[in-house]
């Protein structure tokens, strides 16, 4: 119970600092917009702040630490995310995201073929949304080398 409250305080402080920093983003060229560069970070700060307050108000009564198997799975997820981060620039968003999502889906119990289909589908959809609809270019990596 006390551990949840300590975590709640730490995360609430993080949310406040994160939100404060997000609010300090410079105004975009051409004037203020309804959705600017600070919008998404501010939304994240609010969600983190509300979650932190929930931890403070309603901490978990059963304060049992996760088993070693669960900690190993969490470590594996962190390893996959680190590999994804290192692969993003050299190989590009689509291959790196496909690999990350596929492996994580597989680790959560999905069969290999649906895992790969989910990885490819989500990578392509997010790439198209960001590059063509939002005009926020993600690393092309190998696609750039192949002329795509």
TrEMBL record:
Please provide the record's keywords in A-Z order: Membrane, Transmembrane, Transmembrane helix
Name under which the protein is recorded: Tricarboxylic transporter
State the organism named in the record.
Answer: Marinobacterium aestuarii
Q: Which residues cross the membrane?
A: 39-58, 70-93, 113-134
Q: Which parts of the sequence belong to the DUF1468 domain?
A: 6-139
Note the superkingdom of the native organism: Bacteria
């Amino acid at each position: 119970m006390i551990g949840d409250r300590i975590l709640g305080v730490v995360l609430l402080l993080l949310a406040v600092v994160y939100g404060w920093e997000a609010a300090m983003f410079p105004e975009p060229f051409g004037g203020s917009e309804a959705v600017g560069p600070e919008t998404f970070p501010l939304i994240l700060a609010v969600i983190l702040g509300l979650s932190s307050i929930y931890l403070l108000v309603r901490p978990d009564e059963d304060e049992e630490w996760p088993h070693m198997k669960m900690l190993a799975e969490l470590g594996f997820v962190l390893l996959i995310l680190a590999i994804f981060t290192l692969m993003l620039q050299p190989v590009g968003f689509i291959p790196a995201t496909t690999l990350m999502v596929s492996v994580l889906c597989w680790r959560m119990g999905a069969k290999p073929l649906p895992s790969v289909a989910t990885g490819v589908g989500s990578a392509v959809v997010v790439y198209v949304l960001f590059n063509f609809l939002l005009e926020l270019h993600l690393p092309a990596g190998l696609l750039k080398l192949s002329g795509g």
